[in-house]
Design a protein that fits this description.
Elements (H helix, E strand, L loop, with lengths): L1 E5 L2 E3 L5 E8 L7 E7 L6 E7 L4 E3 L7 E6 L4 E6 L8 E11 L4 E15 L2
Parallel strand pairs: 2-10
Antiparallel strand pairs: 1-3, 3-8, 4-5, 4-9, 5-6, 7-8, 9-10
Length: about 120
């Protein structure tokens, strides 16, 4: 599976950005796509994930501000980020993998290139 991410950039606090990620290749091998992020000096963390059935999961830090969605016809996932804060500054990575509903566990297997989001005044 190949992933190509778009979006990112510079925005002032309170602003919005939208990231998108298009998947191609062996789509049958995945049932979920998501976004991780890594801020300078911090570990990579899960931001949001969405299954092929439309179920979503978010990090507590972004709930109510970020929305993940997908267009199955285009094999594309979107991350709408509103009310951005300086602490949202990070490199955001699109990913794809398998979501195990029984254990509520997401295992990403494929990664796209990172895209930098900078939130600053």
């Amino acid at each position: 599976v190949q992933l190509q991410a778009f979006g990112g950039g510079f925005v002032q606090p309170g602003g919005s950005l939208r990231l998108s990620c298009a998947a191609s290749g062996s789509i049958y091998s995945i049932n979920a796509m998501g976004w991780y992020r890594q801020a300078p000096g911090k570990q990579r963390e899960l931001v949001a994930v969405i299954t092929s059935g439309g179920s979503t999961n978010y990090a507590d830090s972004v709930k109510g501000r970020f929305t993940i969605s997908r267009d199955n016809a285009k094999n594309t996932v979107y991350l709408q980020m509103n009310s951005l804060k300086p602490e949202d500054t990070a490199v955001y990575y699109c990913n794809a993998g398998w979501y195990y509903s029984g254990s509520d566990y997401y295992a990403p297997s494929y990664w796209g290139q990172g895209t930098l989001v900078t939130v600053s005044s």
